[in-house]
Amino acid sequence: MERIDRMSTGILKWIAAAAVGAGLAVAQQPAQAPGQPPAPPASPVARQPKPKSQKEIAALQAMFNAQTPDERIATAKALITGFADSEFRPLAWQLVAMSYQQKGDEENMIVAAEELLKVDPKNFNAMIMISGALARRTREFDLDKEEKLGRAEKLANQARAVIKAAPRPNPQVTDEQWAAAKKDFDAQAAEALGLCALARKKYDDAVNHFKFAVDNSSQPEQATMVRLANAYIEAKRYDEGIGVLDKVLGMSNLHPAIKQFAEQEKKRATMLKDAKPSAAPAQPSAMPQPVPVAPKP
């Protein structure tokens, strides 16, 4: 399945933009022409981190120039360990977490995201990553099932609250761009809540969360749409589930794992829809593993 905890290319863009705003390559604002009315006040901007030395700038440049997940992890950790007072440590931990996520190493992704929350307690990306991972890794008969799902839900809801009030990451990001980005981030948090509901077999709740995620994403993930269809089917809303699967199967560049899963789910939904009440229910298809998607810096 295509990434469910998506490696958002938008996040990398905001990280790089924050570094630019911090002074690595500051863009000059155009001067206001004489006689023009003043521009309307923009929304607040987050405090910009600043490098403290040329050595730190070199470490930052190495981190942002890294081309592979392993290179990003190595250069980001070098910044973290080599510059204990760096204001860029939250960004470095975020790159580490997302790079592990891209590698499919969920265990280390959680560790890095937890470290990110220690240095940046209001980092909604860390909250979303941990929330989704906890929900996905929780099994029906786990002794700590409710503990894990409870924390996952709490983090997802905290993320949504933080996102609403989050300032722009730097002055170069317009209000319109940031509003669109926050809508995407909120959709990711809603998807994490959908995963929690799915783990609890609250299928109608899962439908609502996944549908919100699909409807509010600028580019809905194929994997999220398949999860929405799965929730519809488990809620015995077969026609709606089949309708979503038809949309997925009609997409171009459909990942083979998603295609296979969608075809299996459509077959299962059709069997359940046409089955007599006394017939044995069709077993749900096994969810394929997430497939990493390379970020576009």
Task: Note down, in words, how this protein is organized.
It contains 12 helices and no strands. It is an all-alpha fold and 297 residues long. The protein has a single domain, classed as Tetratricopeptide repeat domain (Serine Threonine Protein Phosphatase 5, Tetratricopeptide repeat). The radius of gyration is 21 Å and the shape is globular.
Question: Low-confidence segments, ≥5 residues, pLDDT <50?
Answer: 1-9, 25-31, 288-297
Calculate Rg over CA atoms: 21 Å
CATH architecture: Alpha Horseshoe
Number of strands: 0
Q: Helix segment count?
A: 12
Find the CATH superfamily. Answer: Tetratricopeptide repeat domain
Helix content: 55-70%
SSE pattern, N- to C-terminal: HHHHHHHHHHHH
Shape: globular
> Could you tell me the mean pLDDT?
86
Compact description:
With 297 residues, this protein is mainly alpha-helical. The longest helix has 25 residues, at 175-199.
List keywords for this structure.
single chain, 297 residues, mainly alpha, Serine Threonine Protein Phosphatase 5, Tetratricopeptide repeat, disordered N terminus, disordered C terminus
